[in-house]
Each structure stands twice: as C-alpha cells, then as structure tokens.
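ARCHIVE CARD
Drawer: 12
Card no.: 0347
Subject: one protein chain, sequence and derived structure
Cross-reference: see card 0346
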Amino acid sequence: MGLLDFLRPRRSAAPATLAAFLHAQAAFVAQKTVIDYCRVKTGRREGHYFGDADFQAALQHCRWQVFFASVSDLAAMVEAHLRPHATGGEAALARSLARLHAEALLAEPPPPDELATARERAEAWPCHVAALQAAPPLPANRLPLLAEPVLFATLPIHADQRVGEAPAIRGALRFHVVSSQQELERRFDAPALAGALVGSSPA
C-alpha cells in the first residue's frame, strides 16, 4: 500500500452518508446554477437586483424549486450508477433510494409555501425511477433532468432577457450534475453501497 492509499479518504458505503450527499449536492447544483447565472446576467447592477425584495423572493423560490428537482435528478443518477452492482435487487435498490430521496428533500426544512412541492417530488419519484429502470442506466451526461424545465420556468430573469441563452443555462445545469456524479464516484464504494441499500430495503 502506497502513501496515496493512506492519504485518500476511504470511500463510504453508508446509506445515511448518501442521504447527506444527495441533500448537499442538490443544494450545490441549485445554488451554482441559479446564482451564478443571475450574477452574470445582472452584471454591474447585481447589488440593485439582489437587494430588491421582489427579486429576492423570486430568486429564493427558484432555488428551492430547482433544489427539489435536483434531489430527484441526483437520486436517479445514483440509481443508474449503482444498478449494475444490484443485479436482481433493482426493486429493493429503488425502494431504499426512495426513502433517502425523501429524507434529502426535507433535511433542511423548506419554507411553508414550498413544502407542497417537496412532498410532490417524494411521491412522484418512485414512478420516475420505475420508468428509468425500464431502460439501461444512463450516465449523468445523458440522464433526463427534471430540474431543467423547472429552472427555465422559475428563473427570476424574464424570458425576453434570456433569448439565445438557453444552451448556456442548460449546459451549466448539466455540468454541475456531471460534477456530482464524479463526486459520487470519488466518495462512495459502489458495490458495497449497492449491497447495503438492497439489504436495508423493506420488502
């Protein structure tokens, strides 16, 4: 065993650590995608817009909505990454991920007016993952993203001011999801984590 093996953090197989990962990475995806775009778009008037109460309210709504959808997307990304290590246990994997997905959605209590969306995402995800499991698993650069239409629908920059920018906005979102898959691969032992999730699933 070399020095790098000692310095490299041990990869986790703990479902609780995965739930925390889903929450933190979804928050990162939402924060980076939404805030970075709005800062670039408002430019030298950033202070004016970010200090405006109406803009802040719209911005926070967008961030929560993209966060909820990103939790679902990252849970789907995890499912695709682990499925090859859960042959015969795909349904159990999906059930365990549904539980962790629901935990991640509410790990930070959302504002009361956003809570309904979190519950809707939790209720919808089992059907979403069942549809994904009907086809071969997709990597993060090809996975359909539920956050994409949500992002475009809630961005606090009027659509008239975003003409021609859709590819860049979409690309930023995809980039952060792909980065999340790379972080997943770095932090977690896929075979052991898949086994733990299948083994902990209620029948």
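Annotation on reverse: The first helix runs from residue 3 to 7. Residues 14-200 form one domain.
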